[in-house]
């Protein structure tokens, strides 16, 4: 009896040890699967960030980096530069206003497509065309359309008698930003349409049909059923488009080159200009880090709202 109990205890201990070993092996296997991802993130994110910090703390040019350690002098220059601070302000305003308008328009178009009995998915596929066009080509096309001499838009407005003389859409500050926004709207609204259309397909048909039977009209279904159900996905789409808008550079470069004056110089263009045109990569690095912090701060409330909506949705 005693020997049997001892044997039982030994066998039980062995099984427990074997289970622990299996758990360790399983955990190690998961770690091995994650190792390439961690390594890729370290190379593509950690190294550039450390390099940027090192550049921002030094006196560096494009051809001669790390000539001397200057501490926080570059950050002091950037934070007292009215041109760059104004550029950050333009980026923030354009990001929020442009993203909000594109979300409203994209959701409305997606709602229209989803209401079609046939052809909705085909139309969604067709609106992909602007999204597949390279941004530089989008800028060139819109620059030709908006040109004061021979431009398609000025030609139409003159022919219709709406204007008496061509408008320099890209030569005046207000019109220039509207022109950039129009080109950006044309390219990125299809992206919003696709995401919103996908979100609309997740709505249960039974709920919509029941509301129709109960006598709810289209406006009531939108306000009381569709929007509350899709609040979290729409917030996700807005955050994604906001990040894309904060990175705007190519359209500014092609359409206005930051002008007239500094009227359309946003943060991305200012960083490029200081780093790759004036070769002051140290200042550009400091500007990049400051802009990243600003983006994090201004998007934090939106991200928190998105998290709150997701918790409410569940």
UniProtKB/TrEMBL annotation:
It comes from Pleomorphomonas carboxyditropha. It is found in: Cell membrane. Its main location: membrane. It is a multi-pass membrane protein. Coiled coil: none annotated. Residues 88-302 form the ABC transmembrane type-1 domain. Belongs to the binding-protein-dependent transport system permease family. Keywords: Cell membrane, Membrane, Transmembrane, Transmembrane helix, Transport. One of its GO terms (cellular component) is plasma membrane. One of its GO terms (biological process) is transmembrane transport. This is ABC transporter permease. The chain crosses the membrane at residues 32-57, 92-113, 122-145, 157-178, 185-203, 223-244, 251-272, 284-303. It holds the Pfam family BPD_transp_1.
């Amino acid at each position: 009896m005693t020997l049997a109990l001892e044997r039982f205890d030994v066998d039980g201990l062995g099984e427990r040890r074997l289970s622990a070993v299996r758990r360790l092996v399983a955990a190690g296997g998961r770690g091995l699967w994650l190792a390439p991802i961690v390594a890729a993130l370290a190379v593509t994110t950690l190294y550039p960030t450390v390099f940027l910090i090192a550049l921002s703390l030094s006196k560096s040019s494009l051809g001669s980096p790390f000539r001397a350690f200057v501490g926080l002098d570059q950050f002091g220059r950037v934070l007292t530069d009215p041109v760059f601070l104004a550029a950050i302000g333009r980026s923030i305003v354009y990001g929020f206003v442009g993203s909000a308008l594109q979300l409203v328009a994209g959701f409305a178009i997606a709602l229209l497509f989803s209401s079609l009995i046939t052809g909705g998915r085909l139309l969604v596929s067709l609106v992909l065309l602007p999204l597949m066009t390279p941004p530089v080509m989008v800028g060139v096309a819109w620059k030709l359309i908006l040109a004061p001499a021979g431009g398609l838009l000025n030609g139409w407005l003159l022919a219709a008698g709406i204007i008496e003389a061509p408008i320099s859409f890209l030569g005046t500050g207000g019109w220039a930003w509207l022109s950039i926004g129009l080109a950006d709207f044309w390219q990125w609204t299809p992206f919003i349409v696709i995401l919103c259309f996908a979100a609309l397909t997740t709505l249960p048909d039974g709920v919509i049909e029941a509301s129709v039977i109960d006598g709810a009209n289209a406006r009531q279904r939108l306000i009381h059923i569709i929007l509350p159900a899709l609040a979290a996905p729409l917030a996700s789409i807005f955050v994604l488009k906001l990040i894309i808008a904060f990175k705007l550079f190519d359209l500014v470069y092609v359409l206005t080159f930051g002008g007239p004056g500094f009227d359309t110089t946003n943060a991305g263009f200012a960083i490029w200009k200081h780093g790759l045109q004036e070769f002051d990569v140290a200042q550009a690095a400091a500007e990049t880090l400051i802009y990243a912090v600003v983006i994090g701060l201004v998007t934090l409330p939106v991200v928190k709202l998105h998290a709150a909506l997701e918790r409410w949705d569940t």
